[in-house]
Design a protein that fits this description.
alpha/beta, six-stranded parallel β-sheet, 15 strands, 23% strand
Length: 345
């Protein structure tokens, strides 16, 4: 199969013909129809992620058609499926209690196993896979990726967002835009924060109630003024110290911070305003992914037209074009997400 392989960190992916993946007993092999290019991939491509090494294939936001099925597989050849990026075992206590995104035996393609920047991808534990609705294009399905699903879980589970509350979103990349769209669907008011005015303008066009440019504004003070006391919920969608602290500082008393952005750097360590958390009695949540059982609710919301996620997908690229998308993440990026839909070049 054709695949984009990491040979050197921070260098263009190398287009190679590699051995087709073996079909897992508990899963399937998908012919990949589309795969999102995610900032989490960027952390692997730069060498920051401990599970990514030269010779690996990235790609964890994918959908496709089953071309091989193992003897213990749930799905069959010809099924069109969407994959959550966390593939849970299905038999541990976490899986049995509905929090499969915390499964201790989870597998994440692209991070420890070969991913979907390729024509084919092996998917173990295929009970996690969800049928692709007929009305949804592969590009849009891949655009759900980890960004829309993670944002949905962050808002509905971790933050327990309620209609009428103010949500601050720090970073208007894929996660940030998904959070904006879903928070508005849930009846919240949203203020977005970024350092790129074009991205803030884009977010305003998608329904943001207010926007703050962190380059020239005290973010926390501006949000306290806009929301008349501070945000009820604040979503950090970038993974750096400055935005994490801005997220903490912009909250009102008893507010809820949700750390969605993967912490940058090899160690993932950062200094946070613990006094702010203590004095305002804030809740500080981490979140990663979404349990597979929640997919049906989210897909139904999209199919019924309750939320339009088409603005999430800004451009479709070829497999060889993924390198340029990753390299662009070293600086401010254009609004929206890139999705690989052409695996022939």
């Amino acid at each position: 199969m054709r695949a984009a392989v990491i040979r050197d960190f921070n260098q263009d992916l190398v287009m190679e013909t590699v051995t087709d993946p073996a079909c897992p007993d508990t899963g399937v092999v998908l012919e990949v129809a589309a795969c999102g290019v995610c900032r989490s991939d960027f952390h692997g491509w730069t060498g920051e992620h401990p599970k990514v090494n030269p010779g690996d294939i990235l790609g964890h936001e994918y959908c496709g058609t089953v071309v091989a099925a193992g003897p213990l597989a749930t799905h069959r050849i010809g099924d069109r499926l969407i994959a959550p990026f966390i593939l849970s075992c299905g038999s541990c206590p976490a899986c049995h209690t509905g929090v499969s995104n915390t499964c201790a035996h989870q597998i994440v393609p692209g991070f420890g196993t070969q991913g979907a920047y390729a024509e084919l991808v092996a998917v173990p534990f295929d009970h996690n896979l969800v049928p692709l609705p007929d009305s949804m294009t592969p590009a849009l399905a891949a655009g759900l990726g980890c960004r829309v699903t993670t944002a949905w879980h962050a808002l509905t589970d971790r933050a327990n967002l309620r209609a009428g509350e103010w949500v601050a979103v720090h970073g208007t990349g894929g996660i940030g835009l998904a959070t904006l769209l879903l928070a508005k669907t849930l009846g919240a008011q949203v203020v977005v924060v970024d350092v790129v005015q074009d991205k803030l303008d884009h977010a305003k066009g998608l329904g943001a109630d207010a926007a703050v440019n962190a380059l020239d504004t005290d973010v926390a003070a501006a949000i306290h003024d806009i929301t008349r006391g501070g945000a009820h919920v604040s979503i950090e969608a970038l993974g750096i110290e400055a935005t994490t602290n801005a997220s903490i500082d912009c909250l009102r008393t008893l507010g809820r911070h949700v750390q969605v952005g993967m912490p940058a750097g090899p160690s993932g360590m950062m200094q946070v305003n613990m006094r702010g958390i203590y004095s305002k009695q804030l809740s500080f949540f981490g979140t990663r992914g979404m349990p597979a059982w929640k997919y049906s609710t989210l897909l139904d919301l999209i199919e019924r037209g309750q939320v339009d996620i088409r603005p999430m997908v800004a451009r479709e690229v070829s497999l060889s074009g993924a390198s340029a998308e990753l390299a662009a993440m070293h600086g401010p990026t254009a609004p929206g997400t890139a999705v690989i839909t052409d695996f022939t070049r």
